[in-house]
Amino acid sequence: MSKLTGTGSRASFEPLDWLLVVIVGVTWGSAYLWIAIGLEALAPGVIACLRVALGAAALFAFPAARRRIDARDWPYVTIVAIAGNGGPALLFALAEERLDSAVVGMLVAAAPVLTLVLAFSLGNRHVRTVHVAGIGLGFVGVVAMAAPELGGADASVLGIALTLTAVLGYALTGNVVVPLQQRYGSMAVVANAQALSAVVLFPLALSGLAESTFAVGPILAVFFLGVMGTGVARALSATLAGRAGPQRSGVPGYLAPVVAIILGVAIRDESVDLIQIAGLVLVLIGAFLIARPNPQFAKRRPTE
């Protein structure tokens, strides 16, 4: 692979792109609730290893996931495995031992900002002013949504640092995965990366078994998290990155805090302040601006 980063091939979001945004955003937004439920019985290392192993198993059931990846591209697949799968899977579980799940979900919406910064620093200059404005507006909205929760939750500095480190990994992956997806397809890239991350996390899972107990609810939560949130949603996210480019592949991250708020109110009986409603509006406007057409993208069809 000649370059570390790639660009999407779509001049604007098509209906399929928006469908991918909604599916991935809603699935990711609910992931932090499933992690919180899993932590009721399972150690962070067990949750992390199980979710990536289940994600890989779900994807390898499809022939497209078993496509051979050239040896020269495995270093990049390893980056995706560590920075985009295994690392965040562990870091989020550790963070939610210290933070509310809604807070973690909100902080993850910083991913598009870091994705844009990394894309630009790695040589991708296909960024319009409207995209920068959208990301900036969305980030302000995320801060507005997160502020009341951060003030009321046990938001330790370590928990926030763990979450933002995981987000940085997502941002790096958003740039690296584009050329891989266009060469091999989403399922092959994500399935192999998750299988590799499961191997890396296996020792932590073994050591965490002594701290874990068997409970149906937490195990079912991790099962859904692994198959849908870590497997299917990651493959769909890679597809979106290949179609729309690394800058706009982070748009689903803006929906995650919206889902986190809704689940917090409906399931966990959390309250929502007016400033969070205002932040939600800013996030949606920002997502719309980020998805505006980029005429510099070549109109070639990626592998999907």
Summarize this entry quickly.
By secondary structure, the chain is mainly alpha-helical. The chain has one domain (16-290).
Description of the molecule:
With 304 residues, this protein is mainly alpha-helical. It has one domain (16-290). 71% of the residues lie in helices and 0% in strands. It has 11 helices and no strands. The chain has helices spanning 15-38, 44-60, 74-95, 101-107, 111-121, 129-152, 157-184, 186-208, 216-244, 252-266, 274-290. α1 (15-38) packs antiparallel against α4 and α8 packs antiparallel against α9. The longest helix is centred in the C-terminal third of the chain and has 29 residues, at 216-244. It is globular, with a radius of gyration of 18 Å. The two termini are 18 Å apart.
Helix percent reads: over 70%
Name the shape in a single word: globular
Number of strands: 0
Low-pLDDT segments, ≥5 res: 1-9, 297-304
Q: Structural class per helix/strand content? A: mainly alpha
Q: Which percent band covers the strand fraction?
A: under 5%
Order of helices and strands: HHHHHHHHHHH
Architecture blueprint of SSEs:
Elements: H1 15-38, H2 44-60, H3 74-95, H4 101-107, H5 111-121, H6 129-152, H7 157-184, H8 186-208, H9 216-244, H10 252-266, H11 274-290
Helix pairs in contact: 1-4, 1-9, 1-10, 2-3, 2-8, 2-9, 3-7, 3-8, 4-6, 4-10, 5-7, 6-11, 7-8, 7-9, 8-9, 10-11
